[in-house]
Structure formats: C-alpha cells, structure tokens
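To illustrate the input format used throughout this study, we show a single complete record. The first block contains the structure-token representation of the backbone; no residue identities are included at this stage. The design step must infer an amino acid for every position from geometry alone.
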C-alpha cells in the first residue's frame, strides 16, 4: 500500500513543481520587462533633467542681463540716447554733423 501511495504522490508533486516553476519563470519575465521599461523611463527623465538644467542656466543669465538693463534704463545716458534716437534732440552745446546723402 505504501508503494502505491508514493507512486500517486510523485506525479502530483511533479505537476506541482512544474506549476511552481512556471509561476516563478513568468514572474521573472515580468520583473525583467518592468525593470527594462523603468530603466528607459529613468534615462528619459535624466535627459529631461539635463535639458531643464540648461534652460534654467539660460534663464538665470537672461534675468541677470535684464537686471543690468533695468539699472541702465534709469541712467541719464540712456535717457539722452533715446531722446537723440526717437526725437532727434541734442544737448545745447552739441553740434550734429549729418552726411549729405
């Protein structure tokens, strides 16, 4: 009786082992696929971060230039320059020579 009981358990245990092996293999494939997709996302995010860092540096430079221009616009030299360009004004002691063309 014992021998027949062992013979019945062996095929069932083999089927169980094959089932467990199939589950483990499928989990390994799923984890492998997800890890590769996560690596790709990570690379994309790193590229995005680098481009945003470069854009941030450009905007910081632009902000510094605008700050300098803001200070320059408040100066007397700027006002005189714009008065000459827009209205053609001159200082009282100034002589303007225009070309004949």
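Output of the design step:
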């Amino acid at each position: 009786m014992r021998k027949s009981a062992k013979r019945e358990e062996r095929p069932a245990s083999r089927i169980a082992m094959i089932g467990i092996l199939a589950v483990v293999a499928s989990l390994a494939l799923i984890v492998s696929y997800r890890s590769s997709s996560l690596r790709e996302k990570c690379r994309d995010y790193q590229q995005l971060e680098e481009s945003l860092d470069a854009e941030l540096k450009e905007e910081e430079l632009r902000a510094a230039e605008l700050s300098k221009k803001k200070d320059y616009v408040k100066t007397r030299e700027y006002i005189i320059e714009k008065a000459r360009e827009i209205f053609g004004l001159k200082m009282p002691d100034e002589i303007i020579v225009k070309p004949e063309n």
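Structural context for interpreting the output: Helices lie at 2-73, 76-87. The mean pLDDT is 89.
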